[in-house]
Amino acid sequence: MSDSHLMPEGTLSLQTIAMPADTNWSGDVFGGWIVSQMDLAGAIHAERFSQGRCATISINQMNFLVPVKVGNVVSCYTKILHVGNTSIQMQIEVWESHDRSRAPIQVTEGVFTFVAVDSNGSKRQIPAEAKQQFLDAQAS
Ligand SMILES: CC(C)(COP(=O)(O)OP(=O)(O)OC[C@H]1O[C@@H](n2cnc3c(N)ncnc32)[C@H](O)[C@@H]1OP(=O)(O)O)[C@@H](O)C(=O)NCCC(=O)NCCS
């Protein structure tokens, strides 16, 4: 996992606000809620990219750098790292911001892998044109 950096990397795939129901007894947001937002953000990007349904097959090591408080805006940025035959490996970063008085702060990041699946939940090939677009963008 790379170190935290000053600016988010990737596409803003999901943005929401942490609510009181998302907190633990200390008033901080549950880590599981944050992972859930990351999974949703990654699925949105993976499904748009692969033109169909996707399932999460793995979540790699994650470190939580700062707590998220109620009312903070939580932004999930997604970046495709690798496209296989049926899988998409994606870096997902979470950043939080309170108001315009300070710059956003990175909360966590992780590498998620999604598998393109059909309506029966069986794996399917990533469309060739989508994969080619990704490879072309990598090369440029
Ligand atoms: C997704 C699913 C259909 C894949 O079927 P499968 O027969 O297990 O698939 P495979 O083992 O052939 O792997 C499919 C792809 O995922 C990759 N993969 C498998 N396990 C992986 C892992 N632990 N980490 C990263 N990639 C992995 C494979 O390399 C392969 O990639 P490629 O086709 O691009 O080369 C099946 O595993 C499944 O339904 N899992 C449950 C998904 C789910 O419910 N997720 C929500 C969690 S509650």
From TrEMBL:
Cited InterPro entries: Cytosol_ACT (IPR040170), HOTDOG_ACOT (IPR033120), HotDog_dom_sf (IPR029069), Thioestr_dom (IPR006683)
Any GO molecular function: long-chain fatty acyl-CoA hydrolase activity
Domain HotDog ACOT-type: 8-120
Keyword Ribosomal protein in record: no
GO cellular component, one term: cytosol
Protein name (database record): Acyl-CoA thioesterase YciA
Example GO BP: fatty acid catabolic process
Keyword Disulfide bond attached: no
Family assignment from sequence similarity: Belongs to the acyl coenzyme A hydrolase family.
Originating species: Acinetobacter rudis CIP 110305
Keyword terms: Hydrolase
Domain of life: Bacteria
